[in-house]
């Protein structure tokens, strides 16, 4: 028992032992009622930060957020195979086009990774964002979406392949040996594309088309983030932590009006940039302090002096975050008044917890958001289809329309918290997924007319859906009718052990393309 107590003490309050310490003029009363004055001791504070950093790194490992050597190998292997495939593909396109022999010999194409994989901040469930870079003679519409598509579809490693053509950044999405891949295409005006082509080199950018330029933006953003941070390793650790925090607290998911990976990457880079010699624990603390106190909508700008105010809809964003290396653009965002409030509340909570020297415990920071405790009523969205394939397409389509629904809800005076996690209703026979969005008390006593929302949303879903088959129903339920696992997530006594209690983030839709769907910009907000 004694050792247990010591252990516990060690884990939770290891920062503060009476001999070290901390705040100027901080007076504690000891059990004998003798006031003890704690004094500033810089060495002790430094030690405290070191300990906190070690604890945090350990916690990230325990949570399985640091990829194992095995996972790393597997992903490297997938990239290598993709490179081989596109290389073969480009040779066959060159022959097909009857290029001169020396051109066929010189012809090449490659794969560049970006997104969380490119930044080195992925885990087992992350997708791989891979850009295919090809030469002048390989076109997007024919060679990429037909030729390469067919080559991929014929491989045993590939499943669930989809083309997403009518997006600002068109891409193919598929699984390769079970790992989700997003594959856009950029066409350069050269014959030979070196394996690690430097896309910042004007030589390669000369004369490229608009779509290719947009497709390159992810790689450009990654490159400049890594160039701008003073220490890539500590940036990666910080980003890993804040991503974990955002997922646990229900503020991760661009389609739900929260952060996408790119937004958090810029926020983390911003903190690293201005605090070059701070430890991981210190950076996490500064992260929360910075953004809890930030005078939004003042934009977050990584490259000072480069930003020119954007003219498009992004200007209206509530949380503008510059897209690195694109002076005219912010990262596309679907933040609404509701989700803005939730994010701010979570920043403040993080700020409060990381300031608290006495009850400090990293596990508090990453505690799952207690939906069933915080909201009495939920908007339940049930999506179903007659088979799994249709359901996949249907979820993808409906999710891509969520930004419009979120705006509609606010027009109907409902404030809500769209929990991005997906659940499944086992009482329904058809394959289904269910979302439960908290309805914010006080602001919306269900004065809004659910029927009108339902009607409008269905109309909006029908526009441009190209025959995707599925059903959707919206209803309002009390917290007591939430599925048991959603209730258990909130129970502090169980969250640390059974992992099946933690909501899963499936990624069946091109998150990436959503901000870019051309026909109707989600940012423009009108559903009908
Ligand atoms: N809203 C956006 N605005 C601008 N660029 C975006 C946006 N969403 C995605 N991208 C680009 O696409 C890349 C991959 O996006 P993705 O959604 O896969 O996020 P990620 O950072 O890889 O995180 P995750 O681990 O969740 O996959 C981003 O790094 C970014 O360059
Ligand atoms: Mg990704
Ligand atoms: Mg992606």
Automatic annotation (TrEMBL):
InterPro entries, sorted: NT_sf, NuclTrfase_I-like_C, PolA_pol_cen_dom, PolA_pol_NTPase, PolyA_polymerase
EC class of the enzyme, as a word: transferase
List of residues binding ATP: 127-129, 182, 243, 252, 261-262
Cofactor(s) needed by this chain: Mn(2+); Mg(2+)
TM segment ranges: 251-271, 277-296
Subcellular location: Nucleus
Source species, domain of life: Eukaryota
GO molecular function per UniProt: ATP binding; metal ion binding; poly(A) RNA polymerase activity; RNA binding
Residues involved in Mg(2+) 2 binding: 127, 129, 182
Annotated positions binding Mg(2+) 1: 127, 129
GO cellular component: nucleus
Biological-process GO terms, alphabetical: mRNA processing; RNA 3'-end processing
Its biological purpose: Polymerase that creates the 3'-poly(A) tail of mRNA's.
Similarity annotation: Belongs to the poly(A) polymerase family.
Name under which the protein is recorded: Poly(A) polymerase
Protein species of origin: Artemisia annua
Lineage of source species: Eukaryota, Viridiplantae, Streptophyta, Embryophyta, Tracheophyta
């Amino acid at each position: 028992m004694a050792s247990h107590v010591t252990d516990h003490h060690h884990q939770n309050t290891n920062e503060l032992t009476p001999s070290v310490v901390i705040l100027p003029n901080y007076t504690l009363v000891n059990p004998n009622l003798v006031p003890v004055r704690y004094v500033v001791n810089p060495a002790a504070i430094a030690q405290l930060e070191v300990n906190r950093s070690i604890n945090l790194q350990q916690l990230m490992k325990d949570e399985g957020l640091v990829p194992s050597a095995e996972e790393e190998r597997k992903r490297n292997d997938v990239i290598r195979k993709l490179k081989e495939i596109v290389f073969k593909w480009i040779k066959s396109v060159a022959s097909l086009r009857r290029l001169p022999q020396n051109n066929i010999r010189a012809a090449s194409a490659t794969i560049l990774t970006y997104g969380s994989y490119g930044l080195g901040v992925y885990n087992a469930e992350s997708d791989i964002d891979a850009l295919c870079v090809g030469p002048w003679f390989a076109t997007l519409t024919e060679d990429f979406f037909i030729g390469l598509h067919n080559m991929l579809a014929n491989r045993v490693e590939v499943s669930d392949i989809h083309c997403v053509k009518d997006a600002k950044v068109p891409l193919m999405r598929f699984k390769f040996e079970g790992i989700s891949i997003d594959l856009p295409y950029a066409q350069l005006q050269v014959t030979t594309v070196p394996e690690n082509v430097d896309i910042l080199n004007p030589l390669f950018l000369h004369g490229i088309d608009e779509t290719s330029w947009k497709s390159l933006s992810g790689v450009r953003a990654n490159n400049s983030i890594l160039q701008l941070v003073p220490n890539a390793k500590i940036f990666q650790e910080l980003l890993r932590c804040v991503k974990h925090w955002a997922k646990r607290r229900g503020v991760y998911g661009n389609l739900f009006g929260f952060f996408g990976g790119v937004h958090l990457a810029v926020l983390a880079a911003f903190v690293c940039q201005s605090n070059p010699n701070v430890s991981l624990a210190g950076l996490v603390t500064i992260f929360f302090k910075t953004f809890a106190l930030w005078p939004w909508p003042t934009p977050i700008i990584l490259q000072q002096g480069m930003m020119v105010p954007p003219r498009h809809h992004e200007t209206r964003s509530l949380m503008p975050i510059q897209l690195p290396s694109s002076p005219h653009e912010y990262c596309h965002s679907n933040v609404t008044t509701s989700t803005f409030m939730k994010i701010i509340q979570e920043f403040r909570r993080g700020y409060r917890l990381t300031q608290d020297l006495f009850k400090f415990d990293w596990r508090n920071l990453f505690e799952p958001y207690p939906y069933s405790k915080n909201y009495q009523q939920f908007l339940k969205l049930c999506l179903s289809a007659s088979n799994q394939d249709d359901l996949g397409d249907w979820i993808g389509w409906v999710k891509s329309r969520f930004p419009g629904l979120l705006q509609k809800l606010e027009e109907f005076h409902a404030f809500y918290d769209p929990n991005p996690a997906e659940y499944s209703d086992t009482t329904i026979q058809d394959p289904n997924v269910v979302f439960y969005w908290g309805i914010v008390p006080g602001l919306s006593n269900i004065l809004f007319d659910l029927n009108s929302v339902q009607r409008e949303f269905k109309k909006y879903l029908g526009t441009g859906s190209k025959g995707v088959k599925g059903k959707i129903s919206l209803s309002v339920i009390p917290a007591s009718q939430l599925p048991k696992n959603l209730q258990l997530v909130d129970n502090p006594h169980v969250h640390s052990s059974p992992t099946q209690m933690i909501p899963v983030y499936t990624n069946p839709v091109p998150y990436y393309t959503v901000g870019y769907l051309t026909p109707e910009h989600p940012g423009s907000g009108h559903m009908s």
